[in-house]
Amino acid sequence: MFKKNIFLKNRISVREKENKRLHRVIFFAGLLSLLFFILLKVTSNEKVFVQYSQTQIRAAEIMKTAVSVIRDFHFKTGKKIDEITDPNHTGLIGSEFSDITTTLGHLQAKRTTTSPDFAALIVQLLDEAGVSTGDTVAFGCSASFPASMIASLAATKAMEIHPVVIISLGASSFGANNPDFNLLDIYQLLTREKIFDVQLAGISLGGEKDVGEDFESHIKQKLIQQIRASEIPFIYESNIYNSVKKRMSIYLGSQTNERISAFINCGGSQANMGSSGLVLKVKPGLNKEIVELPPVDERGVIFKMAALGIPVIHLLYIKGLVLKHGLPWDPIPLPDPGESEIYFSKSKSTIVFWLIAVTYFLVLFLLIIYGRKINSKLL
Question: What is the pTM of this model?
Fold first, then answer.
């Protein structure tokens, strides 16, 4: 009986020791989880500027100045800025409908492109396209996204790139759709204030068939008079095919002196998009190549450039584009240059994250195995 009691006491003592070991394993597993959580938080806050971030910041600052010029112009001239549709007071958000509104547009997308960070995004896309200082870049800009045009101009100025710019005056909802302050007015204001010094290479009415067929006659005549007074080459062709051909002759003409390094499409001009449904497959952002091309007579400038092997930067379907690259969606107020994730490298933090994660799960796995061995002894 005495020996039996001793045996039971020893067994209980062993169980207590094993139990304590199991508790220690659980404690260390919890402590390990806490330590690795803190480590991840600390390392994830580490931000490393990308190699071209200073150029991005410069582009964003140029765009910020451009937006300030447009805002001040509205205040000085008494032009109304809608507090609801344009809470950041950029002066770049138009009305929902007007005499030169062509299609429905997305208000939040228009507001997002007014952020100075959008110019930083263009720098990144141009850099990824292989464009460098001294190169020539072609622009095709409808009035649907006036801020995209400004962002692209700011990016090329910061990168010291020569832009060849053709614009059209038709605009979707909330774009530059005020006939009395249209995209040409915006462009001329910014060149007059010496924000940009690049003269337009061409201009069209835009809208249906790129000749404003959907505009009222008196509005159309007013715009034509404005274009002719500007002395900018006026693109007014009998059909879209000829309009595209005219644009390509301007882009690839002798005035550029060298090959086009990239094409930037801002908005949804018919001449740029073409008539083929394949344009819907062109992804937003950088397209280094577009493999699937429509028939020649259905190609807009996007496909004409792609057929020549020229990278296309497609600034449409804005939400997916900005979220992919770390820009805030519809920010109120607008962020200052240098604050958004686009200015920082994600590669280093991604590697660190996976190293920490793998180490954590390996150590935790070993603790679980050790804990199961202890638990089997207790059973």
Answer: 0.80
Q: Where are the domains of the chain?
A: 2-45+347-378, 50-343
For 291-297, the CB contacts below 8 A with 24+ separation are: 297/241
pLDDT tens digits, 193-232:
999 999 999 999 999 999 999 999 999 999 999 999 999 9
In terms of Cβ atoms closer than 10 Å to its own Cβ (0-12, 13-18, 19+), residue 230 is middle
Peptide bond into 333 cis (omega under 30): yes
Q: Comparing C-alpha atoms, which of 243, 248, 249 is closest to residue 275?
A: 243
Label residue 369 left, alpha or beta by phi (over 0 means left) and psi (-120 to 50 means alpha).
Answer: alpha
